[in-house]
Every structure is written in structure tokens, then in C-alpha cells.
Design goal:
Layout lengths: L2 E7 L11 E2 L2 H11 L3 E5 L8 H11 L2 E6 L2 H4 L10 H19 L5 E3 L14 H21 L4 E3 L13 H7 L8 E6 H7 L3 H8 L3 E5 L15 H10 L5 E4 L7 H15 L5
Parallel strand pairs: 1-2, 1-3, 1-9, 3-4, 4-5, 5-6, 6-7, 7-8, 8-9
Helix pairs in contact: 4-5, 8-9
């Protein structure tokens, strides 16, 4: 069964970006539950930012699960990436993601590596080949940790304007010979795919065996149904590959968080839900 999720940014110093709900955990959980979402995807300051038992109690109260946890705060707030030429920065990036893996694992949720993969071979940074080596080494270590803690690790291909390394799903297929761990999955973000992939539904069919999570946003990164993405064949492709994870709204809160959440759950029910 494909499940719905909505994103919550809990970093009070941030006020813009592709997250539906903002800052208030209790209010966000309440609204997500009232609309009928199955889970929430959390963006936090660190893996130690929330009281685990309190969060567990509130999730149980509202009947929600944690779909995934984002690690992007490591890059946005601290400038950490896994491919930085500075060894200490790479070590700190590994430590940050490790904490996020452990936090998410307490709820059976995977951690997402997106912006923390960094940019490869630019300026005074490491050459492309060296950066690739740093990235693979990090995935081995973090993938093994996630495996030991009972969750997959998610890698998100980003569009060319945000990252120059991992931009398309086929790259993950090419990465397999370099990885011993088989605990790393790919995140299919429909917004990034609209920029980079030639055919979204065919790409999902071609590389579906690797997909562990889906980000649900339209071509303009507004909630699905507010851009020009042809969602019907994409939904059909996900069903055809037997996908049973989350379709999570990492989208701008346009025109406002409540309307964005309502549009998201409406679109989810149109394409995926058998309950309505």
C-alpha cells in the first residue's frame, strides 16, 4: 500500500523552502492527522533536536508515523557535506548524518541524504573522481549503520542547479558496482525529476527496484496539481513496480500551508488512495 506523508520544518530560524508545515510540531501533527495523512517527514536542526519519547507520544496520539527524516540542516546551517576537501568537515558531516540515522531509526524511518552530498569538482574542491570516492566511502559507512539500526538509507538525486553530482536515477544504477552495502535506496523526487529526466514514468519503471521513497511535488515545486506534471502515468508506474512506501509532500506551502496540505491530500487520494 502506498502511503501519504507531509513535510514539517521544525527549525525556527528558517522561514522559506519546500516544506508544507512549519515550526509548531503539535499543530502540524494535529492538522496532518485531521486531513488523513499517514505520516510526516521531519526536517530538524539535528538528530538530538527533539525529545524522542515526547514525539513518540504525540505521534501515537494522532495516529501518525514518521515517513523519513531530512539531513539538509547539516548543509544549510553548518556547511557540512560528504565531499568537502576538508577531512574534518567530512567527519562532521558523517557524524551529523549518523545522528539523524539513529534518530529516524527510533521510529522506523530512513534518513535522506540530499544537499549534504555536496558539489563535486568545483573550484578549489576535490576533483570529480576524488569527490566520488569520498561519497562512496561515506555511503558504505552510513549504509552499514542504517542496516544495523534496521532502516534503509536514502540518497536523493537533485537537479543540476542544486548539485553537480547525483542528478538522475540511472546514476544510482551505475553506483552499484562501487558499493558493497545493499542498504542504500534512492529517493525519487518528482520536482527534481521534472528537470532532469526525459520520461518520469519510464524512469520509475526502469529503476523502480531501487526506489525507497518518493517526494510528491509538481513541476514548479508547488503541491501536486498546481503545475504541469502529468501525474497519472507516474502513479501507474509506481503501482506497476509494486512500490509500497511513502509519497511525501516536499513542496512549497503555496498559497499557504493549510491550502497546500489540502491540495496534497486531494491529489494523493486521486492517484493512490483506495479509501476514498
Amino acid at each position: 500500500m502506498i502511503r501519504s506523508a507531509v513535510t514539517i520544518n521544525l527549525i525556527d530560524t528558517m522561514s522559506s523552502g519546500p516544506w508544507i508545515y512549519w515550526h509548531d510540531l503539535e499543530e502540524s501533527l494535529r492538522k496532518a492527522a485531521e486531513l488523513g495523512f499517514d505520516g510526516v517527514e521531519l526536517f530538524t536542526r539535528s538528530g538530538n533536536d527533539l525529545n524522542v519519547e515526547h514525539l513518540r507520544q504525540r505521534l501515537d496520539h494522532y495516529g501518525l508515523l514518521v515517513a523519513a527524516v531530512g539531513t539538509g540542516a547539516g548543509k544549510v546551517l553548518h556547511g557540512l557535506t560528504l565531499t568537502d576537501p576538508d577531512l574534518e568537515i567530512r567527519k562532521n558531516a558523517l557524524s551529523f548524518i549518523s545522528e539523524m540515522i539513529s534518530f529516524g531509526a527510533k521510529f522506523g524511518a530512513p534518513a535522506i541524504i540530499g544537499s549534504m552530498q555536496g558539489n563535486w569538482g568545483l573550484g578549489s574542491g576535490p576533483k570529480m573522481e576524488e569527490a566520488f570516492g569520498f561519497f562512496v566511502e561515506a555511503l558504505e559507512q552510513l549504509g552499514d549503520q542504517a542496516d544495523q539500526e534496521g532502516v534503509p538509507l536514502l540518497i536523493e538525486p537533485l537537479n543540476r542547479y542544486e548539485c553537480n553530482g547525483f542528478n538522475q536515477l540511472f546514476v544510482f544504477d551505475n553506483l552499484q558496482p562501487y558499493l558493497k552495502t545493499r542498504n542504500v535506496k534512492v529517493l525519487a523526487d518528482l520536482f527534481h525529476m521534472n528537470i532532469e529526466e526525459e520520461n518520469l514514468s519510464q524512469t520509475i519503471r526502469d529503476f523502480g527496484k531501487y526506489i525507497g521513497h518518493v517526494h510528491f511535488a509538481d513541476s514548479n515545486r508547488r503541491p501536486m496539481g498546481m503545475g504541469h506534471t502529468d501525474m497519472a502515468p507516474i502513479a501507474e508506474a509506481l503501482k506497476n513496480i509494486g512500490y509500497s512506501g511513502y509519497v511525501s509532500a516536499e513542496a512549497f506551502p503555496y498559497p499557504n500551508p493549510d491550502a497546500a496540505a489540502e491540495q496534497t491530500i486531494k491529489a494523493f487520494r486521486e492517484y493512490f488512495s483506495t479509501k476514498y
